[in-house]
Amino acid sequence: MSTKEKKMIIFSAPSGSGKSTIINYLLKKGFPIEFSISATTREPRGTEKEGVEYYFLTLQEFKNRIKNDEFLEYEEVYENRFYGTLRSECERIWNEGKLVVFDVDVAGGIRLKKLFADKALAIFVKLPSIEELEQRLRKRNTESEEELQKRLAKASHEMTFSYMFDNVVLNDDLKSVCTQVEELVLNFLQ
Ligand code: ADP
Ligand code: 5GP
Q: Which of 33, 91, 173, 174 is the 20 to 30 A CA-CA neighbour of 183?
């Protein structure tokens, strides 16, 4: 499978909803997709490496790139924590004949969907409840209490924008959400 069209799949949802888990499933299944590596001003966590999960930039470096118009979109997702999609990432991935996959916050997802319209499949990943989201974030154990609270505080607001996406999938049972997303991607590729 490969694609000559410049297409993309956008995954948006509150942090902890399962976007990375679902994207990893699609990668394992061999879909011709590649993750767009975002730039961020947050610190690496756990085993994260420069140029793998993110390009980790200082605030000054990030601002320079804004000035140079290097971002397709960027957001101050949390106070003083900037995240942005680099134009160069899309070109790199499309040149390989693959679809670009984005894991972005809800505002970024809506912006990318507006920019790319029917070239983009925009999927919102929903959880059964905020309590479940809190449990998953605690179990993932990758944030400090303060960072975790920031994510939870933002989540309820983000959930109200799900209607702006092409599809909303419920990540209750992991196997069933993965199958559902797989079907959506297969249809989009046809
Ligand atoms: P995101 O990329 O949206 O921040 P992750 O993919 O990191 O979210 O998922 C958050 C946590 O929830 C991870 O520890 C992941 O293993 C777990 N998780 C994902 N989907 C499910 C599910 N259906 N049931 C239980 N735990 C899940
Ligand atoms: P995390 O710190 O958990 O990796 O990511 C926090 C949030 O930032 C998540 O909701 C994630 O989707 C979002 N995010 C990551 N990269 C980007 C990006 O390039 N643009 C935007 N708008 N959000 C992003």
A: 91
